[in-house]
Amino acid sequence: MKRYFLLLWLSIGVIAMRGQDLTQTLRGTVVDAESRYPLALARVIVTAEDGAIRGALTDSTGNYRVAQVPIGRYTVTYQYISYQPLTFNNIEVTSGREVILDAAMQASSIELDAVDIVGQRDGEASNDMALVSAREFSVTETNLYAGSRGEPARMASNYAGVQGADDSRNDIVVRGNSPQGVIYRMDGINLPNPNHFAISGTGGGPVTILNNKYLSNSDFFTGAFPAEYGNAVAGVFDLKMRNGNNDKREFTGQFGFLGTELAAEGPISREKKSSYLATYRYSTLALFSGLGINIGTNAVPQYQDGAFRLNFPLKSGANLSIWGIGGTSTIDIVLSDQAKPDTSTLLYGSNDRDQYFTTRTGVVAATFTQPINVNTFVKVGLALTHQQVLTHHDQIFRHVEGDAYVVDSLPRILNYAFNDSRISTYAYINHKIDRKQTLKFGVYIDQYFFNFQDSARTVVPQPNGQPTTLENWRVRWDTKAHPIQVQPFIQYRLRLQDRFTFTAGITSLYFSINKNSLSPVEPRVGLAYQITDKQRISFGAGLHSQIQSPYLYYYGQTTINRDPQEYNLGMGLTKSLHYVLGYDLLVAKNVKLKLETYFQYLYNIPVEQRISSFSLVNTGSGFSRFFPDTLTNAGTGRNFGFEATLEKFFSNGYYFLLTGSVFDAKYRGSDLVWRNTTFNGRYGFNALFAKEFTFKKKNALNIGAKLTTLGGRWYGPVDIAASDKALEIVYLSETANTIQFRPYFRADLKVGYKWNMKNLTHQWGVDLVNVLNTQNILSLTYNPGNPNGPIQQEYQLGFLPLFYYRIDW
């Protein structure tokens, strides 16, 4: 056997690539995907774009190191006897930081003496239980996509069947579903909304607290996901945080429109292979404002966020990681301190009040992995998470003296503080029964601690010039509760002849808030058959359920001295049946065609008890909270469509991604009328392209472009009389979602330049979002001062240039 491996290594024919002064180290660890045991003497082949090869063998702990790799882009292939070969394309090597590339290899279902075929894995989900509607996304992709701003959600909106809901936010619509149907996980921990300025009941925001400087390759699911993912009906982000460099200290600094950032990583103990990683970002707009620079608005969004990860390898292959992410954001819209308020630069809010808005999000977690034997490992996690939303409004009463306003009083008219804290834990065991069969089972538990407080009062104009008065305070939320959510699961996978794969799983969801929030059995199944080396068909189906946004359960208006009347404590789970059929074709070595068709039936959707067109499927995006009437789980919906993706993975200096979807999303409220959902655009198309030009074999110019066109959102005729009374848009219920906004179109352009010096890499770039300044309609708003009528159209963001400069050393 040793002789075989010696001959195997010598056959690599390591070629020294001369004539390049700038080099870097590429290293990592190779393990069995099922047991996490290290694979000793695995073959690692690093192939340059010109065909030059170098490589290494892993040691007894599965570690490998390829030193003095000239900067550039490479294909890295892993081979091991009786294991399926594994390939990573488009691995960029720069002079500023080492490349740490870990690999988890799948044992072949057939005993092999040697491996001759190198498999491709670009875009394939790292979760082996996912056979349909899943893909892996990498940090490299987030850097390539024009208009993505380095964010996972905005990057995912380029995929077939996924659309953004609003240019100013990163909410995403998956196959016509509400953005509320998407969940985020980080290293197994269920995350609260991971965005700055997060609004209760939404999954997005204008700026993410996530940072691609600490994210590793992660998975994104759009339907029929495996049994380990519960409490979601539309999509799942399964995010992974990378470890810091355990051998060399490295630093990153970045200055850009979205933030000024610092990152550091390095070894805690080189001998024990432990490491640290830390990042911090501060709002650049707030920095500009603090320096007295006019940024075009008095309401300056201020935010900061950070993350850390401490990783400790232990004895017998065990590993302990302690990590955390968090962010805080504030925006104050203050008009009362202006002698004559100028609303021309008012980006948010109303001109009759001062508004103060703050959000805070934090997660601290520990994860522990322990191999039991060569076939089994156990992983457990524990986390404390907290999310807080604070707001208060002060009404401005003023009069005019000469050319200036004089403030008479600033009575408080709104106070709310929503606190959502959780203790989250999970544990699972992964057992490889044999080469063909794998079993995984475990449980996820979230103990919630809710504290929702909200009181408001309304300004009441008086006739005949009488002084304006204020209503009595109304309590809308007054809740302290601590329900628990439990999701056990079991998954099984069978592989035959490396051609046929079958997965099956069962999960359950229990939310202790009421007796209606139990889904005892949710079956999931997946099938995939590799027709040829280039063709594969797949099928997936499953039942999924999700709790409602927690704050909705406890809403109920009452006066200040009366007991709260919580209207919606009886709401149960929303449920969804998914069916997906897929076909994959490897058109060329680096070009892949993916086709999927799907059907989704939703039921138990909360709708109003009174007869109306309302349904919760139309909520979940934007900056406004929702104040529900009494809701009941009597609504239904159905989505079906066809998706196509043609992707050329980055090679020979360029890549492209073409995605298209045609679909139909309908719902039925308590009036039993089928209507378009608000998000039923009916079609969506994306075209992305990027080209890299290299100079002197060390510097690179990247140019990327993106075109997006989508069907418009749906709305209905406005009830003018009701809107005049409420001073906000009120739609006629019986004709809801019968009118469609005009189609959405946007063109983005990204230009970046990277130059490498010895142990140092500089990057600058500019992302030109909506470069043609297209006016896309966002919504209707109520403006009684508009000379053309009180109902006016509001538009999405116009042209937005986003710049950055980054240095790695």
The main sheet comes to: 22 strands, antiparallel, barrel
Structural class: mainly beta
User: Helical percent range?
Assistant: under 10%
Distance between the terminal alpha carbons, to the nearest Å? Answer: 42 Å
Oligomer: single chain
Basic shape: globular
* Beta strands, count: 50
Overall mean confidence score, pLDDT:
87
Radius of gyration: 28 Å
Indicate the low-confidence ranges by residue numbers: 1-20, 113-120, 343-349
Q: Tell me the number of helical segments per DSSP (H or I, 4 or more residues long).
A: 6
Strand fraction band? over 45%
Describe the structure.
By secondary structure, the chain is mainly beta. It contains 6 helices and 50 strands. The strands form 10 sheets. The protein has a 22-stranded antiparallel beta barrel. The protein has a 5-stranded mixed beta sheet with strand order 9-16-17-12-13. The longest helix has 9 residues, at 2-10. It starts with a helix and ends with a strand. The relative contact order is 0.11. Residues 1-20, 113-120 and 343-349 have low confidence and may be disordered.
Blueprint (SSEs and pairs):
Blueprint: H1 2-10, E1 23-32, E2 43-48, E3 53-57, E4 63-70, E5 72-79, E6 86-93, E7 99-100, E8 103-105, E9 134-137, H2 139-144, H3 152-156, E10 162-164, E11 172-174, E12 182-186, E13 189-190, E14 195-196, E15 207-208, E16 218-221, E17 235-239, E18 250-256, E19 259-269, E20 274-282, H4 284-290, E21 302-313, E22 319-333, E23 353-373, E24 376-395, E25 397-401, E26 404-409, E27 412-432, E28 437-456, E29 459-460, E30 469-470, E31 474-481, E32 484-496, E33 500-511, E34 518-530, E35 535-546, H5 550-553, E36 558-559, E37 574-588, E38 591-608, E39 631-651, E40 654-668, E41 674-676, E42 683-695, E43 699-710, E44 714-715, H6 720-726, E45 739-740, E46 744-757, E47 760-769, E48 777-782, E49 791-795, E50 800-808
Parallel strand pairs: 1-7, 1-8, 12-17
Antiparallel strand pairs: 1-4, 2-3, 2-5, 5-6, 9-16, 10-11, 12-13, 14-15, 16-17, 18-19, 18-50, 19-20, 20-21, 21-22, 22-23, 23-24, 24-27, 25-26, 27-28, 28-31, 28-32, 29-30, 31-36, 32-33, 33-34, 34-35, 35-37, 37-38, 38-39, 39-40, 40-41, 40-42, 42-43, 43-46, 44-45, 46-47, 47-50, 48-49
